[in-house]
Amino acid sequence: MDVELEVRGFLQRLRHSRLRGLLVVGTGDVKAWAEKLAGYAGGDCALVSPSAGRLPGICRSWAPPGSIERILGGEYAAAIIAVPGLLRPSIIAGAGETVRSGGFLAIVADPPDRWDPGPPRSTGLYREYLFSSIRDNPVHLWVDDESGRIVSESFLEYTGVGAQGWSPGRYKPSPGSGVPKRLVSACRSESQARALESLARFFRGRWRSALVRGDRGRGKSYVIGLALAYAAWRRLIGRAVLVGPTPLSVQSVMAGLIRGLDVLGLKGHRVVRTSGGEVIRVSGPWFRIAYEQPDTAEPSPLMVVDEAAAVGVARVRRLSWRSGKSLVATTIHGYEGSGRAFARLLPNILPKPFMELELREPIRYLPGDPLEEWLYTVFMLRAEPSEPGDPSAARPVEVSREVLARDREVLRSVYGILVQAHYRNTPDDLLAMLESPHHRIYALEAEGTPVAVADVVLEGPGVEEEARIALDRLLYMAGSPGSGVVSWRVSRIAVHEDLQRRGLGSRLLRHVEAQARESGASLVTTMFSRHDVIPFWLRNGFKPFYVSPRYNRVTGEKNVALAKPLDSAGAEILEKASKTLALKLALAGSSIYRDLAAEKLALLLHHTPATAPPLYLTGIQARHLEGFLKGEVMADQAFDAVYIALLNTLLATRSWNPVEPGLVGAVARVVQGKPYSEVASIIGASTVDEAVGKVEEYIRGILEEARSLWSGRVIP
């Protein structure tokens, strides 16, 4: 059989059908076949390969396996993956989303009998899963060049594909849209054009924020760029800040902006690029739109956030509330995985009045494209849980990796629940579930369907260092070598969205604890950056032992770790670690933990063990403190003394209520050093004077009650 002839015939059928397809070539000469496929695409391709095996010049773009984002936002006739060894799901999903209608996604690998796309010491389950998934693809060709045979092929008439049908000339704008036809002509779908009209109204109107959402490949970023060009043309914006994970991630916005300015005939704008060619600033006589990194961006009259799920909910909240207008884009489903949970949070955190838009039509390929459907199905990019059974009949079970690899319905149901636990899930989570020997999946199953799922990771001796993310921090905080200590970390736990707040999560957690105790583990731990779930863990008897000094790069919040001991050894370690955290929260509250929400700091501190007061007053400070307690001076005039006495009280007692507004205000002002203007907002005071009064009244009361704690700790 002539393998090359079969490949050329398959690619020709793709071009004629305008479908996108999957091509897998098994060969002993990866380089030669990558060059052939690049030639078939006329060089209009993106190549994913290691730098050591880079094939210079054969494709228009290149990305190493660890930086797939380099080709995202581009559009190619083909994407060619030539990656030896581990082939992560995110590489396949990311590369596949860059291929235009009639093009192909190619995987060039070893012949099938020698090809293992899994990690070293693989279980073989990912290989089994990927191979069966390739065979299930409705439009694919898999050939073995060494044996000269077709391994698998399919070219079904795909009835799910619709016609593109977008014609700017036939587009009927909304009455009073105000968008010039020449700018509409730069759009690539009707939903893009409608979104452009809505964003034009956003810039002209009184909206504080706008959210543009949709699956990847819908042109969200590009249409935001066109809208920015419109706003600049109308002189509706001056200075704007564009935030995204990296300069590379905002290039679609910049491309739309530059294209829009050119179409509108706006002359004299200046484009600034990095040494790598990425556009980071576009400015004109009266406007300036510049990229800034998420962790250094400052509020602006206009804040634009692209790929908000990767920027993080906390950063989006902070930047949007402190800016004039905010324009935010987020991906619901795409190569990064599901951002469904994050997209649901955004309307609740963005300033009002609020506008929400969704783009549904793909711009690079036909609606209902079989390759997109295959990628989304195989890598769980659009996983939804099954209809739940009766929760009263739910029973705990362990779901084996073998079942997950071989039963797609079970995998989809499990994954569909787990995506609710994180702001952003990735296809590589699937790889960990199938291949990691330290992962366990537990579920509450009702009538054969999961209603709650926990993803658990075993940590201890023999586990790779990068996987011991909670245990190592626990031992560090406890100052203990911890040789031989084993813990189970709950990486994710979630309940079906229709059955939440019924105690199912707590019930499943108790089962995980029982299994961990039976296995000989000393603790169950968890670490996360979704601060809204802290109360769940505290209610279930977990104790905080770590808060990261830096932000989580995904959520923009600080990671929080909690644990529950299962034996005396675990209890001793956790007691030490939690006391260490208490001191850090109190003593570093005005520095590395100043940006932690005051109510969260108070809640975490309250659930650490009481510890001996660490600070002493001088005789002069003690007299100043007495003056404050008698109302002779304000707290700020005796701040150093108030600080020492309050910290001693908060550390040594637990009689205070962590949700009382006065306590929260005292933590914000004294422990964290926040200005009273911010304290007023935190505790709901209408004026700064009201906030001062409430905080000082609370401090006087708590210090009088705890007088013995500080009055006996005075240095003569």
Automatic annotation (TrEMBL):
Gene Ontology CC annotations of this record: cytoplasm
Binding site for ATP: Q192, R364
Record localization: Cytoplasm
Taxonomic lineage: Archaea, Thermoproteota, Thermoprotei, Desulfurococcales, Desulfurococcaceae
Keywords noted in UniProt: Acyltransferase, ATP-binding, Cytoplasm, Nucleotide-binding, RNA-binding, Transferase, tRNA processing, tRNA-binding
Transport recorded as keyword: no
Record-level GO BP terms: rRNA acetylation involved in maturation of SSU-rRNA; tRNA acetylation; tRNA wobble cytosine modification
The EC number(s) this enzyme carries: 2.3.1.193
Protein name: tRNA(Met) cytidine acetyltransferase TmcA
Parts of the chain that traverse the membrane: none
Gene giving rise to this polypeptide: tmcA
